[in-house]
Amino acid sequence: MRQLSVLCLALLVSAGVAAETYRWIDSSGRVVISDTPPPGKAKAISRTSGEPAATSGDESFATRKARENFPVILYTAADCTDLCRQARDLLNSRGVPFSEKMLQKAEDANELKALVGDAFVPSIKVGQQSYRGFEANAYNNLLDLAGYPKTAAYGSKPSGGIAPASEAKKTAPPESGAPAAD
Q1: Cβ neighbours, 10 Å, residue 62
Q2: Strand, coil or helix: what is 177?
Q3: pTM exceeds 0.90 for this model
Q4: In order of start, what are the domains of the chain with their CATH numbers?
Q5: Amino acid 56: pLDDT
Q6: What is the pLDDT of residue 16?
Q7: Do the Cβ atoms of 115 and 74 come closer than 8 Å?
């Protein structure tokens, strides 16, 4: 019983301490990693905290390359609820970093018309390829061809989001799954 209480106390004390790790090169050229600060003659000192790294910089190499070469933009509208949510959920389930552009002004609608022929939401642009509407197989095909992973990495957080509203004159948003009115 006494050993158990000592063990519990030791675990509580170690859990409460935020471990910092120091990495440096000593005078003989060896790399040293320790929880104690380096001596005065150490070179190339770096210090890390015991907290986990942020997930935003932890994307896989494949995701990073796909994002650089084939950025994803999801076009939505304020009254597009179900289909736009499904499109967002598909992108997030695959761990795809994307930006969401809500049609709020005439320029946004014109940009989408030039891309897919009309202001139809949801629509997606992956690199130079685009798709009008939402169909999971079509979205998955575009993402597969761009090299995005089929599933999100464990612990990844949803990406994307709606760009902030601008001060410019706004037009009425298009209906969900229907072309926008001019």
Answers
A1: 11
A2: coil
A3: no
A4: 59-146 (3.40.30.10)
A5: 45
A6: 44
A7: no
Cβ atoms within 10 Å, residue 56: 10
Q: What does the alpha-carbon distance between residue 35 and residue 19 come to, in Å, rounded to a whole number?
A: 7
Cis status of the peptide bond prior to 122, with omega within 30 of 0 = yes
Q: What is the per-residue pLDDT across 106-145, written as a single tens digit (0 to 9) for each?
A: 999 999 999 999 989 999 999 999 999 999 999 999 999 9
Distance CA 88, CA 149 (A): 16
Average of per-residue pLDDT across 94-102 = 92
What type of residue sits at position 99?
A: S
Identify the helix (H) or strand (E) that includes residue 10.
Answer: helix 2-16
What pLDDT score was predicted for residue 140?
Answer: 96
**Percentage of residues in the chain with pLDDT exceeding 90?**
42
**How far apart, in whole angstroms, are the C-alpha atoms of residue 19 and residue 7?**
19
Please check whether residue 60 is in contact with residue 29, taking contact to mean a CB–CB distance below 8 angstroms: no
- Which residues fall within 8 angstroms of residue 152, CB to CB, at 6 or more apart? 92, 93, 94, 95
Residues present in the chain in total: 182
Alpha helices, H only, 46-165 = 61-69, 82-93, 106-116, 136-146
Integer angstrom CA distances of residue 19 from 7, 12, 13, 37, 45: 19, 14, 12, 12, 17
